[in-house]
Every structure is written in C-alpha cells, then in structure tokens.
Design a protein that fits this description.
This protein is an alpha+beta fold. The chain contains 8 helices and 13 strands.
C-alpha cells in the first residue's frame, strides 16, 4: 500500500519512490487507517473486494503542499489504477489518497449470482454533507465454494510479419515485467502466405493501457485486438522448503479442501543449487517436491 503511494507521489513530484517524503499519509492516524484496514481484511479472510463507482467531491482542499484541486493529485493518479468514479455534487474531499490507495491495491472480485451477505457495517463521518448521508457501508459477502476464483481478463493479440524474433522476445519480457498474466506466440500464415507471428497477451482489465502502450511502442503492429475472457485460478501461494541441498521456493496450488493439487519448485533456486553443488538439476527438483506436504507430488 505504501509502496503504491510512494510510486504515485514520486510520479507527481518527478522523483524515485524511495526519495518520497510522506506528509498527511505518513501521519499516525493514516498509518493506523492503512494497517487497521489491511488487518481487518486478513482477519475476515477476505479474498477480494468489489467497489462501486467512487464520488470524489469537487472544489479545493488545503494540505501540506498548499491549496489543491479535488481530487488531490495523488488521488487522481490512483483512480487510473482501475477505479471508477461517480458524479458528485458535494464541495468536499470525499476520497482521500489513503482511501484510494487501499481500494486500488486490494485484489478485486466480481460478486457472482447466488452470493449471500454475511454481515453489514455502516460507518458515519462527522461532517454533514449537503446532498447525501456521510456514510460508508461495507458488506461481507460469501460466494459459493468452487475449486478456484473467477476473474475477468482480456486477451490482447496482434499479427507480426516484419518484426524480428529478438524484438518479440524483448517485448515479451517487458510485458511480463509490466504485469501481464501470460505472454505467448503462435506461428501463423498471413496475406500472400507470408509467415508471421501472432503475439498474445493475457492481461487484467486495469493493466490494458500499459500492455497496449508497450505493444505499440516496441513492435511494428498498427492494431491490437482486444477480446474479453473469464478465467478461474486456483488458490496459490509460495512456500520455502528445506532440502538436503538448501532452501528452495515452491509455488503451490490448493483446492477448496486445502489439498495440494500442484507444486512447482522455483527454477532459478534449483539451478543455482545444482550448479553450486555439481548435482543433477532433477535431483534438486525431486528433493523440493518430496518435502511439500511430506510426500512427492
């Protein structure tokens, strides 16, 4: 959360995130807001949030940087991280950078049909607004258990017949670094049977513009197709396992009953151990898998 705020403030002030000095956001009450909100989600076991369009208010506000328009610059930048806004007729700041950062950083989930409301909390502010109650409502919602989590994603694709393999490889790495869920290529035949490459990118909706920017900037394409998709993912986490050769990070996926469905040792960890000890790579991989749940997967 604070890393996101530092990134946004750094972009606004033209400096690296590590050089940013927090003002209001670094105050004790803001730290309590952020840590307390994250702790609440953790204790409730929340896997994701669904946020309605956010009213920001209008006018100006006085802060450490002087008189600023509403929404504040940091809030406005955070809204570009996948948050929708709603018309607002209140001459006050209704969305702060801290609140926007919380909503932007937390994982998002859609509320499917058949979901049930488990609990409701209503929080009232002290300021009396002109046209609406100063109310923030949170609803804890439980969805039907499945073997994973559904989310909306997009496939961005373009055909390339005048782009070298080195350029496509470089672009693929840049896309993954920028947050692409997956990047792959397919061999295709284009007009006049020219051999070409279809570049495909699986992306979250909030990352669309970043992906498109890279594809247009780094490749020779003049157009990118955008196809909406829905995917289901298993619950995944990373575990450090201790092998006779040293520690290895393992990516593990579990089903709804908690059973391990798949496990994959981190290749770079295994490679470094194999090279350092002069043993076969497959021996390191086998040793790591054996210690996931006490048996080999």
């Amino acid at each position: 959360m604070f890393a996101l705020l530092a990134e946004v403030e750094g972009k606004i002030h033209g400096k690296p995130p590590e050089a940013v000095s927090f003002h209001e956001v670094g105050a004790v009450d803001s730290i309590v807001d952020v840590v307390g909100s994250c702790l609440a989600l953790h204790l409730l076991g929340v896997e994701g949030i669904s946020v309605s369009p956010l009213p920001t208010g209008y006018g100006t506000l006085q802060c450490a940087h002087g008189l600023l328009p509403i929404p504040a610059p940091a809030t406005a930048e955070l809204l570009t991280r996948g948050l929708a806004i709603a018309p607002s007729d209140e001459p006050f700041e209704l969305l702060t950078p801290t609140g926007a950062a919380l909503l932007a950083a937390w994982p998002k989930r859609e509320i499917p049909a058949g979901a049930t409301v488990v609990a409701v909390a209503n929080s009232f502010g002290r300021r009396e607004l002109l046209h609406r109650p100063n109310l923030l409502r949170a609803m804890l919602i439980e969805t039907a258990k499945t073997a994973g989590t559904d989310e909306e994603v997009e496939e961005l694709a373009c055909n390339l017949d005048d782009c070298t393999g080195e350029v496509i490889g470089y672009l693929s790495e840049r896309l993954l670094e920028a947050g692409a869920l997956d990047v792959w290529t397919e061999a295709i035949q284009m007009k006049k049977q020219r051999p070409g490459v279809k570049l495909c990118v699986l992306s979250r909706l909030a990352d669309r513009e970043a992906m498109l920017g890279l594809m247009f900037r780094e490749s020779t394409t003049l157009g990118v197709r955008i196809a909406p998709l829905r995917r289901r993912t298993l619950t995944r986490f990373e575990e450090n396992v201790v092998t006779p050769y040293g520690p290895v990070r393992v990516k593990i996926a579990r089903g709804e009953d908690g059973a391990v469905l798949s496990a994959k040792p981190e290749f770079e960890d295994c490679r470094k151990i194999a090279e350092r000890r002069g043993i076969p790579l497959k021996e390191v991989v086998r040793a790591a898998l054996f210690r996931v749940g006490g048996h080999e997967i």
